[in-house]
Specification:
Blueprint lengths: L1 H5 L6 H9 L9 H7 L6 E4 L6 E8 L8 E5 L8 E3 L1 E2 L6 E8 L3 E8 L8 H11 L9 E4 L11 E7 L19 E9 L4 E9 L11 E6 L1 H5 L4 H10 L6 E6 L6 H6 L3 H16 L11 E6 L1 H12 L6 E5 L16 H8 L6 E7 L12 H14 L3 E7 L5 H15 L7
Helix pairs in contact: 10-11
Length: about 425
């Protein structure tokens, strides 16, 4: 087909075959073409003849006829641009984009229409993507980010999840019939130090006090994401029913406004002070928790991994374990002296603290942003610094980008590494 030969955005043999079989026309609306293309589902996944370790993935979207430009966006396209322009098939409203991807890749993606005029700045383009992005209606696998109820500038977002044939299984992320479920409560924690109420969800494993001994403690930043995009309560239920972890209390820590997230997590001493002097007394008055630092984990993803590592550095007598998923260690915190990599430099300078780490990062997270080096090299560097200082570090890399679709699988790996069972039952 001349179209496929002239437009490198669409390389799919399947699309070429369908277009070739319909070269006679007679489908003015394109409905028949669309039905034929998506007969076996979408995206279309085909062998990549140029590289056996890859597959050729073709994304398909049929938005409203008014759309004059379309994009597919995903961290799976890292380290290149996360948004790729799609091509419109001739005489139809169908948009396509073919991409070569590793066959063991997993990630989320969405579609959005192009702008009529170029953005004046990157934030303007990010805002456009945020407000117009939609899931793939042909793909039943999704990942959901709820709206922050108290933030008028936030909105709910649902993205589609692509799992390629050799992606590592994620055995704990879906509910299982017959598995006892922990209790999940919504609460509001008032903080004078942080200046307001913080929404939190508190999960208790089946068998937590008063039924048993003091529970382990897990605090995860970005609570909404760790409740929905990463189904932490379900993961903890499944780990517990297989006796892989002891009973624990998990605090899913969130923010009344999205703008407060990075303010708190970018090495903010007020967050550490709040946790030590306000929050821990508050939560221990309501739940029977261990006071053993080696059974207290603080964690998060991206800036949450940075914030967790900072809190443990400030409070090693409280938090003896850090769970960091694609931690943003290249961050240069505002208000402190030093450039990118400030926190790893603090660990390098010593003295060594009694902290154990789980770090992971995606093999595609290598691109540098506007602010610093990429997530993958900065995590490797931080791992090397910690190991040189004789810290215990559990380190893993997954095939993927900066994406909750990957972190929902590695969360269980981190918990098993940091909280090995101490009980006999």
């Amino acid at each position: 087909m001349p179209f496929l030969n002239s437009d490198p955005k669409v390389e799919s043999p399947r699309v070429a075959q369908v277009l070739g079989s319909r070269s006679g026309g007679g489908d003015p609306t394109g409905e028949g073409l669309w039905c034929e293309l998506v007969r076996n589902g979408a995206p279309i996944v085909e062998p990549d003849p140029t590289a056996p370790a890859n597959v050729l993935v073709t994304f398909l979207w049929a938005p409203s006829p008014s759309v004059s430009k379309a994009f597919v966006t995903s961290s799976m396209f890292e380290p290149g641009p996360e948004s790729l322009e799609m091509a419109r098939l001739p005489d139809s409203g169908i948009w396509c984009r073919s991409v070569r991807l590793p066959s063991d890749l997993r990630g989320s993606y969405g579609f959005y229409p192009g702008r009529e005029s170029p953005p004046t700045s990157p934030p303007e383009e990010w805002e456009h993507i945020f407000h117009t992005q939609v899931r793939d209606p042909l793909n039943p696998q999704t990942i959901r980010f709820p709206k922050i109820a108290t933030d008028p500038n936030d909105q709910e977002m649902t993205r589609s999840v692509l799992e390629l044939p050799r992606a590592i299984p994620q055995p704990f992320v879906r509910p299982r019939p017959g598995v006892p479920r922990g209790r999940l409560e919504s609460r509001s924690f008032p903080s004078r130090i942080l200046g307001g109420d913080h929404p939190i969800r508190v999960y208790q494993s089946p068998g937590c006090p008063p039924e048993g001994p003091s529970a382990d403690l897990l605090i995860l930043f970005d609570g909404l994401a760790y409740e929905h995009a990463i189904p932490t309560p379900t993961i903890l239920d499944n780990l517990r029913t297989e006796n892989r972890i002891d009973p624990l209390v998990a605090v899913l820590w969130d923010y009344p406004l999205g703008a407060l997230r990075n303010i708190e997590l970018e090495c903010n001493p007020r967050l550490a002070e709040c946790l030590e002097t306000e929050f821990l007394p508050w939560v221990r008055a309501r739940y029977q928790l261990t006071r053993d630092p080696s059974r207290n984990v603080v964690g998060g993803s991206s800036a949450g991994g940075l914030g967790a590592s900072y809190v443990a550095w400030k409070l090693p007598g409280v938090f003896g374990k850090v769970l960091s998923q694609s931690g943003w260690y290249a961050c240069a915190p505002s208000g402190v002296r030093g450039g990118p990599g400030w926190l790893p430099d603090q660990y390098r300078a010593g003295p060594k603290r009694p902290i154990e780490f789980y770090l992971d990062a995606g093999t595609l997270e290598s691109a540098a942003g506007a602010w610093a080096e990429g997530i993958l090299p900065s995590n490797r560097s931080f791992r090397d610094i910690l190991q040189a200082q004789k810290y215990t570090v559990h380190y893993a890399e997954f095939t993927g980008g900066h994406d909750h679709a990957n972190w929902r699988g590695t969360l269980s790996d981190g918990l098993e590494a940091l909280l090995p069972r101490k009980a006999s039952g």
